[in-house]
Design a protein that fits this description.
single chain; alpha+beta; Beta-Lactamase; 16 helices; STAS_dom_sf; coiled coil; STAS domain-containing protein; STAS_dom; GAF-like_dom_sf
Length: 611
Amino acid sequence: MIPDPRAEAGFHGPQGVELATTFARALLALVEADTDDAVLRAVASAVSSYGPSLIRFYTLRDDPGDLGPHDPRFIDRSGPRPAQTDAGVPTHAELSSVWQAGICPATDPLLGRPFALADHPVLARWLAAPRQALVLHDLSADPRPGAHPGERSAQALVVLPLTTGGPDPRWPGVLVLSWKIVHIPSPRERLVYDMLGAAVASLLVARDALRDHQRAIDEANTMYVAALALAEAATLDETLAALAEPAQAIDASSAALWLRDPADPTRLVLRAGGERATRPLADLAGLFTRANEPWLFEQVRSDTPTEIEPGAPTPRVSEPTGPDGAALGATLLLPLAWGGREVALLELGWSSPRPLPTALRRLYAALAGPAAVSLAGRALLAEAAAAAPTGDLAGLEALPVAAVVGTGEALQGNSRWSALGLTGGAHVPVASALADAVGASAELRRDLVGEPALAVFAAPLVGVTGKAVAVLLDTSEDARAERQRLESRDVLLERQGALLARRAVPVLAIVDELAVIPVTGALDDARAQQLAEVAAEVPRGPRTLILDFTGVTGVDPGTATVVHEAARGLVARGASVIFSAAPATLVHALAGEHIDSLGDALASALVNPRA
């Protein structure tokens, strides 16, 4: 009979139980960890007995972000780049937390600075076989020293991948442990690292999924609020405020809105956010080839703005300055067009160069259409008022959109108005908009749902009592996009419950087919239901699952049946279930079940795997 390697690693006897108990405490700390520093402190509590002097936690990602300059002592971009053997491993990393001699967080020059894995000599070596830990017993005998000054002073390193394993693994991060002396991990220590890597990966995947989900919901809500503020803006200053608000999240220092000059269509005029000025529209022709998409420029010399984005045209403008005349470090330009005509330009400025976050880029791309409609509607309304100052219909024919004059039932419109076919009472909302404009003596906007979706911009005719003029813009495309965004947000909200359950009651993989499902906090109806939902998602097949209640602070007696049914469901799908630290309230309902402390349960499962 071949002995089980877990038993060989020493998880038997009093020492094995003690080790398992220490590991169990680390698991419970992991469950409570809500920051990267807290995750690393939990990791350190499980491995500090092995004597590492330094532990670094790197998060992995495919999005490189803003790599920026790096000190060559830390990141070497000059050497040969090793081949990446597993395409599923992210390409970039960022140092998220550092533990040093019991202190966490400790300082480190690499903290918060993204870099390519292939540029870091130690992590690049790990990339050659990323599914297993890289163990370097004695760096003095290794021809390739560590890239980091702290690692150069180390004698031994362990690079521990945090991966969920399986056919479709996830790679949320990697741990690098350093020793100042030669260190050869024992089989038991190696197993602890493997167990820890799997458990931390399980937790981080659940945490990151919930964070990403929440960010998506926040992004959808921000878009909804910004679009609503844009539609309700009554002045150009309010329109600029609605457009600039999302950029305040990354500390925009200035905002300006340029509109096409009605007196000279070849120029833009600054209408909000600064002193009146003009600029040639031709100088921005390159931007308008990709209208309604954001561009980000950084000022790298005093006379020439150059683009952050590859292939972006460089606008022929002087050095960008804010309202106070100070030079800007980065400028976002959002060219707005509607119906094939250039309408406006939004300009946001920052005091220092910076990348445009992906979420903010998506938001401004989504806001561009509604913003262009809002500004084009105002411009076309002004043209309609100028073309029919006394309510004469003939002057409205030259407009590129439907236009009407009058009030109530006495509406007259151009041929594009007739083509809309608003009959059988469908014209009533339009008539109401004109009547409201007359009553308020102000310009206003009304949005009409349906097919086509229409935005009505109306204003009273100056000097003509009881009459108003209006233009109607087809907003069907924007309305469809808004419906899709709202539907996507509803789907996100529906899925949020399941993700919250996975985060509140995570399934922490340990090794092979062994996992711990820790339940913490008050075990009430909601938490018991989360446990049931998570248990129902555990795949069929032989495995050992430890339902741990060590972190439970209180129990509703009515939850005992739900817990028992969840366990029976797991058994029915082929799992062996062990209850650890079950509260007295549950013991009667769980009579006949295997109940241990978490440490004992882990030690038992590791020595005598049931799966």
